[in-house]
Design a protein that fits this description.
The chain is built from eleven helices and 16 strands. By secondary structure, the protein is α/β, with parallel strands linked by helices. The strands form three sheets. Strands 3, 4, 5, 6, 7, 8, 15 and 16 form an eight-stranded mixed β-sheet that branches. A six-stranded parallel β-sheet has the order 11-10-9-12-13-14, sandwiched between helices. A two-stranded antiparallel sheet has the order 1-2. Bound molecules: zinc ion (ZN) (2 copies).
């Protein structure tokens, strides 16, 4: 028997328990597909939304790191994946966090993640096209303009699930760095983004990968993800400001800390680049000395979400390296949809890299 409704977890008010509700499955319009959600991981920004650190439309169905199987496709203008292959029922897929129009000025400039008519999975009001726009549900509706990547069976759900936010964001970050072969990278934050960035930097040939974090226990496993050196934030901070630069080619701020962003600038080599990725909720200002930027030929770049090429690159990276790096260990616990509030509490208290939700349970 085919389902006619889908359970979904609805977020209404920050700090309040989320509720499991039931919605009818939508009638598909041209270029749409319906996906059965097999796994969804709670991203840090989901937690920021739930705790009220950032504003999202409400009521909404959160969750944007999702893997699933195509349950139905529109027969009129059947959608295709990023390679142009038509989607079919049963295809195992991941897809971009943002869907874009492909026609506005930003889309034409390649800034598809900032489309003027942006649709973001896990960030839409239930009044938009369908309430089923997030991963904390049994089904999710894929709308036109979504970059879909078809998967084979190589990667497990746990390995691949974070690809549509964390891994693709890291791919976008490092694609913007250019050639990494033989270069040095300093990463702030040993969470999902930082560990993924360490592993991907190595994959791309970086010779020196340093991870800095506040907590020694978070640094304990970074060598499993390719880091060549670790440094505690307190040790980095206590270094005198002159003559003690780590002299790295790239500093990747993935913790959201303004102090880390400032330290990143300080530890860049001449010609280096600071990339800001982690600050997805409001943060204090960082002092910048323009003369330092000028004389040391420094660059500062921001990364938010990604383009379809980075999602493809991220899937390629996981496929090639999942035997080398223990990605599935980063999903520290899994809960069914019905225990979502326990899952959130666990994610907040344990500071786990990821908590998984399995809607099939
Ligand atoms: Zn657009
Ligand atoms: Zn995310």
């Amino acid at each position: 028997m085919t389902a006619s409704t889908s359970r979904a977890v609805v977020f209404r008010v920050a700090g309040q328990p989320l509720q499991l509700e039931e919605f009818p499955l939508p009638e598909l319009k041209p270029r749409e597909a319906l996906v059965r959600v097999d796994f969804c991981t709670l991203c840090g920004s989901d937690l920021h939304s739930m705790l009220g650190h950032r504003r999202v439309p409400t009521p909404s169905v959160l969750g944007h790191e999702i893997v699933g199987c195509v349950a139905s496709v529109s027969t009129e203008q059947t959608p295709a994946d990023v390679t142009g292959r038509t989607l079919a029922v049963g295809d195992r897929v991941v897809w971009s966090v943002a869907a874009c129009c492909g026609e506005c000025d930003r889309c034409r400039r390649g800034l598809t993640q900032k489309c003027r008519q942006l649709f973001k999975y896990g960030h839409e009001s239930t009044d938009s096209r369908s309430p089923l726009s997030g991963g904390l549900a049994e089904f999710c509706l894929l709308v036109p303009g979504t970059a879909v990547v078809t998967l084979d069976e190589t990667l497990s759900d746990r390995e691949v699930c974070p690809v549509s936010c964390a891994t693709a964001t890291v791919a976008e970050t490092l694609r913007g760095c250019g050639e990494l072969d033989g270069r040095s990278v300093l990463i702030f934050g040993a969470g999902m983004l930082g560990l993924t960035a360490a592993a991907m930097s190595r994959w791309l040939g970086a010779s020196r990968v340093i991870i800095c974090d506040l907590a020694a226990e978070r640094l304990a496993r970074v060598r499993d993800f390719g880091a060549s050196e670790t440094i505690l934030w307190s040790d980095l901070e206590s270094q005198p400001t002159t003559g003690a630069s780590l002299d790295v080619d790239f500093a990747l701020e993935m913790s959201g800390s303004s102090d880390a962003a400032a330290a990143g600038l300080q530890h860049l080599a001449t010609g280096g680049e600071l990339v800001l990725v982690g600050a997805v909720s409001p943060t204090p200002a960082v002092p910048i000395e323009p003369e330092q930027i000028v004389r040391r030929l420094l660059r500062i770049r921001g990364v938010h979400n990604y383009t379809p090429q980075s999602l493809q690159q991220a899937v390629r990276f996981l496929t090639e390296t999942h035997h080398e790096f223990p990605f599935s260990d980063l999903i520290e616990q899994t809960f069914p949809l019905s225990r979502i509030n326990e899952a959130i509490a666990c994610a907040v208290e344990s500071r786990a890299c990821r908590i998984g939700i399995d809607p099939r349970k």
